[in-house]
């Protein structure tokens, strides 16, 4: 579905991204990991056409959307969920309007729009009455659910997430991670996550893309990566995560289902 070929990005004579290649199929989750400054956000921004490519291409269902000759802002059938849900919502708008904005291109009648918003809130397990509140009148966890509702209401094929759980406490993180997993299975969605949380990546990813100084250190099936990364950088990263306790010891069938 999504194909990234030889993507490179230079800015101010610096190689911010170099020769990035990966694919994402329907129903797959890719986690982009790597230390701070490795180029994760830059990669996401270049996929979305917010930064121009120097080389390479981004294709969606066979069609080129980004290349040095062509920069299209926003890929069709994609939506984005950011790290800070409160900052992502307009404080002066009721939740209902924030969700409705995702459908501004659709030709839905008012009653259908209303129904789609109610269904999206139900899908993210929020009470219907939240639609009439302002962002300041809901919790952080509820706000992130609203942002997810706003993303899924447009019925995308791919959702991009930039650290969507990092602003939340552990219990809410777990609830939202489960919600995202359920929505993915129900709607056959594909996900691309930027995350520093290797425990999350091990649990939810199908594939791992490890970046270091704008280059791919590893692009691996999740189980192979966590069994033993091939690169010295990958090994060092996992070692640090085990020492700091940010990576639980073993992924088993039982705890994957938990
Ligand atoms: N518009 C820009 N012009 C020049 N350099 C940039 C630009 N945007 C990002 N960079 C540089 O690109 C590098 C990668 O930044 P990026 O934000 O992609 O890293 P990251 O892996 O997402 O980091 P973090 O995990 O801290 O969010 C950094 O050195 C940054 O300073």
TrEMBL record:
Alphabetized InterPro entries for the sequence: AAA+_ATPase, ABC_transp_ATP-bind, ABC_transporter-like_ATP-bd, ABC_transporter-like_CS, P-loop_NTPase
Domain named ABC transporter: residues: 2-238
Keywords linked to the UniProt accession: ATP-binding, Nucleotide-binding, Transport
Swiss-Prot/TrEMBL GO biological process terms: transmembrane transport
GO molecular function: ATP binding; ATP hydrolysis activity
Record-linked CDD domains: ABC_NikE_OppD_transporters (cd03257)
Superkingdom: Bacteria
One family name in Pfam for this protein: ABC_tran
Name of the molecule in the record: ABC transporter domain-containing protein
């Amino acid at each position: 579905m999504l194909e990234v070929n030889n993507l490179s990005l230079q800015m101010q004579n610096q190689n911010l991204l170099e020769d990035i290649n990966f694919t994402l199929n329907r129903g797959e989750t890719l986690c982009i990991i790597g230390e701070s400054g490795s180029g994760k956000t830059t990669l996401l921004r270049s996929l979305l056409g917010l930064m121009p490519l120097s080389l390479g291409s981004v294709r969606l269902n066979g069609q080129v959307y980004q290349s040095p000759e062509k920069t299209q802002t926003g890929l069709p059938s994609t939506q984005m969920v950011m790290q800070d849900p409160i900052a992502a919502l307009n404080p002066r708008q009721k939740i209902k309007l924030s969700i409705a904005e995702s459908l501004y291109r659709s030709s839905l009648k008012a009653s259908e729009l209303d129904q789609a918003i109610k269904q999206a809130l139900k899908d993210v397990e929020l009470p219907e009455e939240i639609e009439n509140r302002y962002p300041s009148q809901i919790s952080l966890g509820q706000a992130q659910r609203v942002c997810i509702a706003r993303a899924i209401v447009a019925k995308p094929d791919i959702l991009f997430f930039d650290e969507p759980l990092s602003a939340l406490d552990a219990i809410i993180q777990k609830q939202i991670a489960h919600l995202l997993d359920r929505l993915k299975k129900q709607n056959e969605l594909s996900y691309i996550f930027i995350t520093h949380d290797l425990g999350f990546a091990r649990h939810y990813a199908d594939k791992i893309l490890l970046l270091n100084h704008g280059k791919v250190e590893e692009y691996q099936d999740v189980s192979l990566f966590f069994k033993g990364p091939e690169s010295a950088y990958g090994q060092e990263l996992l070692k640090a995560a085990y020492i700091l306790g940010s990576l639980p010891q073993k992924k088993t069938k039982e705890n994957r289902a938990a």
